[in-house]
């Protein structure tokens, strides 16, 4: 896990790469890679690649980056982990490739030399890289299928720049800070900025599961090589007569395989532990995979000590069950206030989440961990969110009235035009008939933060109009359902994985953990696991979580399995509302109403701070 | 005789026989495009009337201009129909984008839109926006214009490329021409120069900023003259301003000069200065630099490209009179000849890049068409099934 950067002055009229600019971009990401630093420039100074290293595999200097092939024709700067690099390496060596290091980075170079950009289909892991091909005079960017690792780029028409963080690109000083309305509108609607947009017009995210070529003519259109929707469609087409017992065996084998791969490291791998099934099951699977010494860490809050919301006693029970070295880290309001400016500074793109990950990552780093396993992705894979139940229900109920032409808009206008009464209504109620009749719309209602007609009051009329025009939120969501899975489970799994998990959970985990130089690994967000389990989970529907719980040799404590899903409760919203330094939301009437959800006020504060 | 290969319909304001920066750009563009690999014929339909189109490059056919907007639209449709199959519709001005997009849609051809400058900086109608969004390729004369276009058009930025102006070989360094020194009474003086129209609608060029900076320059360089080349309805205002600033003696108005004489005019100058805020690119900067004189431009528009972010000349904040005066003094203080600094804008590079853009276009997916097969994109002869 590292920070990567690069500049390619591809246009014939462009100035050569300015080394200080690349170094500014690279060093803005010092926390992503405190163990090493490097850069590389082509002979004609038209290309520069930079790297900040967090050493996890092959800690020696031989693993330093940017790394060039033996003939110097290929150079790569890489962020992430390739979990199947040992298998790939063995296979490449069998075909005559000679390796100079033990790193997974070198595998990328040999694999590219052999397969070209199709190499991405061979990789299992989380990755974002830039690879310079001197013979082609072209740069290849690639990002992992789920979008676990971030990759942003800016092309001003002469010069192409990329980096692991938006703020790093800005730190270079050459990129326009013109705002992107679609990014801001997306943030207000979803609570996170939907890729490929960022809040800056010139900076874009390379979409998850895509590659991008940049050559002398400039940036080509990104090519998608992986689609979650397509994976579910294929899985649903598989007809299986296997018994539940057989399916459970498959699930255990696949989960164990994923966890085993995610433990590959030359440093200790710890784990985040809550009182939920996902993180607990992963700790159990780590034990089943043979890891003897496991350091676990749980986040707790002084306010909750001894109360029902306190997850730490149950987490401690899980830790005891699997014999881990366990730490419960208490966070106080004072610490939160002290950290808030740093949190906002580290927040790469506006988001309403990520604070929990900030503190749990901080705790893990304090324990000396460089790598931690997280249960992120379990709810998307095994249907753990209420949306798996609510969205299909909403679509069924509203399918007929929602299709009556004009009724949705009329209802919305009436319900939002009733003066004070409208303010007492949940803003989503006004959108029920307008959006609730299809999956994209109903999902938007379930996950939406603000409704489109509220944006004018929050971010201004012009930016709201332009952003809505450009983002077209319902079409944006619906495009992710192409091809469209047959089952409602498949559809919601696609939407949760491609929107909420990708743009919110994974991105927040990246900035919040990397700010503490901690690599977070997510074994439940794994391509091979998805391909093997999608047909099973689509068949089992809402009961799928049992597959995970029942995959352990030593079962989870019954209290964990039977605990109702509540979400992770924290006192942070109370702290935020009490903080006198962040009260700008009071200026906006829609946010000042008593019943306003704290996330909406927090979103406004984040936007003000950005 | 028509060559085999792609047939391109170009709708332009003016090109061969026209005057001004856009006409020059279109001539360079269309001549080069006609020479691109795989291109058979470029049919040009201009709007502005010209006395004579002159000798056209091989592969280019320019039709009779049609000035009236409505008649131009009909003529474009008729031309498109009469010259089928058309593979690419080139739209030489943003205002024509809806017409070009409609023709491209009708003929299942690829749309290539060119944007020059100020016309693309602010949002036009929804129809214009959607038309540009349907383009397979948009070329912008500068990064700045590209950025301003992308602020209101929701097209994939990968489809918007930059193709800067190029500079004609006739602009080369040379001695100061004696006849012009005499004509304008600037013998023995250091000459500052601006070349542009003096239109009241184009006050962004910055003549008035230069005039206001002159008193500060004169303190150290009393032997200077400021030669304003170009004509227009704003001249009287500038003359009055020169009087008001007490520099009327130093400011000379050359009026409009014949295009043939322009290289000599540049050679007459020591410093070319145009602190503009409205340049799409500013081809005059290239022409000045090609003749070896120092240049000063504004730092907020397409001038950034012409001066390569300050690598080829000095960029100044247009609002800062002191900064402008200081830049002029520094340029006058430095007598070292610069030579031709426009190597990176030479025609062969323009041609190579245009070829690459043409290949890029051929590989693009269009909203209504499949990508051109590589064999056709390279060799021409489009089968009817594609059109």
User: How many domains would you count in the coordinates of chain B?
Assistant: 2
- Helix content bin of chain B: 25-40%
Distance between the termini of chain A: 26 Å
Poorly predicted regions of chain A are none
Helix content of chain A: 40-55%
Structural class estimated from helices and strands of chain A: alpha+beta
Which residues of chain B form runs of ≥5 with pLDDT under 50?
Answer: 370-387
Arithmetic mean pLDDT of chain B: 90
Number of E-state strands of chain A: 18
Determine the number of helices of chain B (DSSP H or I, runs of at least 4 residues): 14
Integer count of domains of chain A: 3
**CATH topology description of the largest domain in chain B:** Rossmann fold
As a percent range, the share of strand residues of chain A is: 5-15%
Output the CATH class name of the largest domain in chain A.
Alpha Beta
Overall structural class of chain B, as computed from helix and strand content, comes to alpha/beta
From the N-terminal CA to the C-terminal CA of chain B, the straight-line distance is 22 Å
Order of strands across the main sheet of chain B: 3-2-1-4-5-6-7
Describe this structure in words.
The complex is a heterodimer of chains A (610) and B (387). Chain A is globular and about 70 Å long. Chain A is of the alpha+beta class and 610 residues long. In chain A, strands 4, 5, 6, 7, 11, 12 and 13 form a seven-stranded antiparallel beta sheet that branches. In chain A, strands 2-3-1-9-8-10 form a six-stranded antiparallel beta sheet. Helices cover 44% and strands 15% of the residues of chain A. Chain B is of the alpha/beta class. Chain B folds into two domains: 6-166 and 346-386, 3-Layer(aba) Sandwich (Rossmann fold), CATH 3.40.50; 178-333, Glycogen Phosphorylase B (Rossmann fold). Helix content of chain B is 36%, strand content 17%. Chain B has 14 helices and 13 strands. In chain B, the strands form two sheets. A seven-stranded parallel beta sheet of chain B has the order 3-2-1-4-5-6-7, sandwiched between helices. A six-stranded parallel beta sheet of chain B has the order 10-9-8-11-12-13, sandwiched between helices. The chains are: A alpha+beta (610), B alpha/beta (387). Chains A and B meet through strand 12 and helix 19 of A and helix 5, strand 7 and helix 13 of B.
């Amino acid at each position: 896990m590292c920070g990567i950067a690069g500049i390619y002055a591809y246009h014939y009229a462009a100035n050569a790469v300015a080394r200080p600019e690349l170094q500014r971009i690279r060093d803005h990401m010092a926390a992503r890679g405190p163990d090493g630093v490097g850069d590389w420039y082509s002979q004609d100074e038209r290309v520069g690649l930079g790297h900040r290293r967090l050493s996890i595999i092959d800690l020696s200097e031989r693993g330093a980056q940017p790394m060039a092939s033996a003939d110097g024709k290929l150079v790569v700067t890489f962020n992430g982990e390739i979990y199947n690099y040992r298998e790939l390496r063995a296979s490449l060596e069998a075909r005559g490739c000679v390796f100079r290091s033990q790193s997974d980075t070198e595998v990328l170079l040999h694999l590219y030399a052999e397969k070209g950009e199709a190499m991405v289909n061979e990789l299992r892991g989380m990755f974002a890289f830039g690879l310079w091909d001197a013979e082609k005079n072209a740069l290849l960017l690639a990002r992992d299928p789920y979008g676990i690792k971030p990759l942003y780029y800016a092309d001003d028409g002469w010069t192409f720049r990329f980096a692991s963080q938006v703020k790093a690109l800005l730190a270079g000083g050459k990129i326009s800070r013109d705002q992107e309305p679609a990014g801001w509108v997306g943030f207000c609607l979803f609570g996170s900025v939907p890729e490929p947009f960022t809040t800056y017009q010139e900076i874009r995210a390379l979409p998850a599961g895509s590659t991008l070529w940049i050559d002398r003519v400039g940036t080509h259109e990104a090519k998608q090589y992986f689609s979650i929707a397509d994976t579910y469609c294929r899985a649903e087409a598989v007809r299986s007569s296997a018994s539940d017992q057989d399916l459970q065996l498959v699930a255990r084998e696949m989960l164990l395989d994923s966890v085993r791969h995610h433990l590959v490291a030359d440093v200790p791998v710890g784990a985040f532990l809550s009182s939920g099934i996902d993180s607990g099951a992963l700790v159990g699977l780590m034990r089943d995979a043979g890891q003897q010494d496991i350091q676990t860490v749980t986040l707790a809050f002084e306010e909750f000590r001894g109360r029902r919301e306190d997850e730490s006693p149950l987490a401690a029970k899980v830790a005891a069950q699997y014999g881990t070295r366990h730490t419960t880290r208490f966070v106080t309001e004072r610490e939160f206030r002290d950290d808030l400016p740093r949190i906002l500074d580290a927040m790469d793109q506006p988001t309403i989440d990520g604070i929990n990950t900030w503190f749990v990552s901080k705790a893990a780093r304090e324990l000396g961990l460089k790598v931690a396993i997280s249960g992120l992705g379990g709810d998307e894979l095994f249907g753990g969110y209420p949306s798996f139940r609510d969205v299909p229900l909403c679509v069924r109920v509203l399918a007929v009235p929602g299709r009556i032409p004009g009724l949705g808009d009329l209802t919305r206008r009436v319900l939002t035009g009733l003066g004070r009464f409208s303010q007492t209504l949940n803003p989503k109620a006004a959108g029920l008939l307008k959006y609730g009749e299809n999956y994209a719309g109903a999902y938007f209602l379930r996950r939406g933060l603000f409704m489109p007609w509220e944006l004018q009051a929050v971010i201004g009329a012009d930016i709201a109009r332009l952003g809505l025009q450009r983002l077209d939120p319902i079409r944006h969501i619906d495009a992710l359902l192409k091809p469209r899975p047959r089952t409602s489970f498949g559809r919601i799994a696609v939407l949760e994985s491609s929107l909420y998990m990708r743009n919110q959970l994974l991105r927040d985990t990246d900035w919040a953990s990397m700010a503490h130089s901690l690599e977070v690994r997510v074994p439940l967000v794994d391509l091979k696991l998805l391909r093997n389990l999608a047909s099973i989970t689509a068949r089992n529907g809402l009961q799928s979580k049992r597959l995970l719980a029942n995959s352990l040799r030593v079962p989870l404590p019954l209290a964990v399995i039977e605990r109702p899903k509540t979400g992770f409760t924290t006192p942070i919203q109370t702290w935020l509302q009490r903080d006198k330094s962040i009260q700008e939301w009071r200026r906006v009437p829609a946010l000042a109403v008593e019943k306003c959800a704290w996330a909406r006020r927090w979103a406004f504060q984040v936007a003000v701070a950005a | 005789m028509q060559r085999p290969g792609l047939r391109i319909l170009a709708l332009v304001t003016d090109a061969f026989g026209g005057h001004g920066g856009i006409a020059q750009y279109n001539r360079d563009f269309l001549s080069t495009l006609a020479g691109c690999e795989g291109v058979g014929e470029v049919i040009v339909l201009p709007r502005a009337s010209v006395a004579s189109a002159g000798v056209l490059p091989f592969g280019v056919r320019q039709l009779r201009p049609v000035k009236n907007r409505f008649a131009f639209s009909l003529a474009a449709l008729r031309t498109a129909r009469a010259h089928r199959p058309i593979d690419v519709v080139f739209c030489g001005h943003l205002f024509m984008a809806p017409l070009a997009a409609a023709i491209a849609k009708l003929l299942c051809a690829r749309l290539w839109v060119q944007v020059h400058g100020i016309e693309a900086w602010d949002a036009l109608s929804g129809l214009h926006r959607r038309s540009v969004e349907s383009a397979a390729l948009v070329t912008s004369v500068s990064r700045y214009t590209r950025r301003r276009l992308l602020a209101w058009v929701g097209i994939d930025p990968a489809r918007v490329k930059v193709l800067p102006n190029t500079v004609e070989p006739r602009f080369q360094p040379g001695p100061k021409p004696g006849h012009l020194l005499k004509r304008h009474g600037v013998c023995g003086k250091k000459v500052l120069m601006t070349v542009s129209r003096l239109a009241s609608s184009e006050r962004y060029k910055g003549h008035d900023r230069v005039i206001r900076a002159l008193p500060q320059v004169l303190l150290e360089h009393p032997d200077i003259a400021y030669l304003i080349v170009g004509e227009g309805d704003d001249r009287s205002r500038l003359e009055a301003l020169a009087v008001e600033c007490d520099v009327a003696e130093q400011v000379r108005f050359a009026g409009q000069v014949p295009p043939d004489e322009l290289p000599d005019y540049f050679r007459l100058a020591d410093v070319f200065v145009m602190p503009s805020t409205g340049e799409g690119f500013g081809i005059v900067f290239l022409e000045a630099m090609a003749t070896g004189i120092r240049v000063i431009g504004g730092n907020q528009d397409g001038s950034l490209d012409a001066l390569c972010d300050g690598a080829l000349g000095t960029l100044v904040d247009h609002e800062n009179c002191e900064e402008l005066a200081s830049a002029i003094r520094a340029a006058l203080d430095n007598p070292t000849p610069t030579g031709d600094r426009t190597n990176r804008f030479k025609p062969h590079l323009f041609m190579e890049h245009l070829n690459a853009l043409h290949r890029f276009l051929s590989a693009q997916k269009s909203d209504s068409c499949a990508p051109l097969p590589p064999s056709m994109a390279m060799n021409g002869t489009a089968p009817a099934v594609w059109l």
